[in-house]
Write a structure and sequence with these properties.
- It contains 14 helices and seven strands.
- With about 300 residues, the chain is α/β, with parallel strands linked by helices.
- The two termini are about 40 Å apart.
- Helix 9 crosses helix 10.
- Strands 3-2-1-4-5-7-6 form a seven-stranded mixed beta sheet, with helices on both faces.
- The model has no long low-confidence stretch (mean pLDDT about 95).
- It folds into two domains: about 190 residues, 3-Layer(aba) Sandwich (Rossmann fold), CATH 3.40.50.150; about 90 residues, Orthogonal Bundle (DNA polymerase, domain 1), CATH 1.10.150.
- The protein binds S-adenosylmethionine.
- S-adenosylmethionine (SAM) binds next to helix 2.
């Protein structure tokens, strides 16, 4: 199960108009998406994105008139679901002849369904193929974590682990990866954990696993997460109506910095108003039921 994070705060942040058009770029378990749909009337539109076909299937199942309008009474808003990267927002809006939208919501990162699925190769705690793609069914042209560790050069791997994982041992880990793959390919998550532990042995007093930062960096790099976010902020802002809102939940400092700087620049240029000077974080009550919410931060921007 995936418990939506900062649920009421996100819905309030969007200040939903009944007949508006809203983008949920990250359907996941469709928790936020269903609530957005509940706030929309029959003239409203919800456009949902996810790269993961399982998320699209879940959203299709949950976004039904009977589930959204309790008891099956009343009409539901129009729903458009696309298995696409949210960075292609402009293309999708054009395909549906939509010029502008009232709100764009992003709840970045991974759903609990994805993290729990060992076949996605996201976790160092489970053995699985080194995939790490947001797409559950990556094609030949999609980069996987396997491609990165088995074919990128040592310096690029070190820079990636340092930049996206903030890992100070990045050079040692990159060298160990390249030394290992000279003998045999690094195929599974546990292979990669063994490589990392060969230069950073696990000690009983360590609070976090030595593989934590490298795995985070590889997930970000595999999916060009920061590139996609930056592109979406630019394209999305263009498509926001006057008084339209961005509401974005991030989970680590790198992505939060991108959102914070973009919002600040638009506010300084008098193009938008910062609704949140400081990000909204989860209450103690939320953390008690959903520890996954711990590092979440919600930022809101309104276009002028
Ligand atoms: C944290 S979950 C969203 C949870 C959702 N708000 C809910 O209520 O269940 C993030 C989802 O966004 C998707 N995602 C992340 N980055 C994406 C991108 N660039 N394009 C499309 N989907 C993306 C992931 O596949 C995942 O399903």
């Amino acid at each position: 199960m995936h418990i939506p994070v900062l649920f009421n705060e996100s819905i309030e942040a969007l200040s939903i108009k009944k007949d508006g058009t809203y983008v949920d770029g990250t359907l996941g378990g469709a928790g936020h998406a269903c609530e957005i749909a509940r706030h929309l009337g029959p003239d409203g539109t919800l456009i949902g994105f996810d790269l993961d076909s399982n998320a699209i299937a879940r959203a299709k199942e949950k976004l039904t008139p009977s589930a959204i309008r309790s008891g099956g009474s009343g009409q539901m808003c129009k729903v458009i679901l696309v298995q696409e990267n949210f960075r292609n927002l402009d293309k999708v809006l054009e395909e549906h002849d939509i010029q502008e939208v009232e709100g764009i919501f992003l709840d970045l990162g991974w759903s609990s369904f994805q993290i729990a699925d060992a076949s996605r190769g996201l976790s160092f705690q489970e053995d699985g193929p080194l995939k790490m793609t947001l797409k559950d069914n990556p094609g030949e042209d999609d980069v996987t974590a396997y491609d990165i560790v088995n074919s990128w050069d040592e310096k690029t791997i070190a820079d990636t682990i340092y930049t996206y994982g903030d890992e100070r041992a990045s050079r040692r880990i990159a060298k160990a990866i390249v030394d290992w793959r000279r003998k045999k390919p690094i195929i599974t998550t546990f292979d990669l954990v063994s490589v990392i532990e060969s230069v950073m042995p696990r000690k009983p007093w360590m609070k976090t696993n030595p593989a934590t930062k490298t795995f985070q960096a590889l997930r970000i790099a595999t999916n060009d997460e920061y590139g996609a976010l930056g592109e979406t902020l630019e394209k999305g802002f263009e498509r926001l109506k006057q008084s339209g809102r961005f509401a974005i939940i991030s989970f680590h400092s790198g992505e939060d910095r991108i959102v914070k700087n973009f919002f600040r620049d638009k506010a300084h240029a008098d193009l938008a108003t910062l609704i949140t000077k400081k990000p909204i974080t989860p209450s103690e009550a939320e953390l008690a039921v959903n520890p996954r919410a711990r590092s979440s931060k919600l930022r809101i921007l309104e276009k002028i």
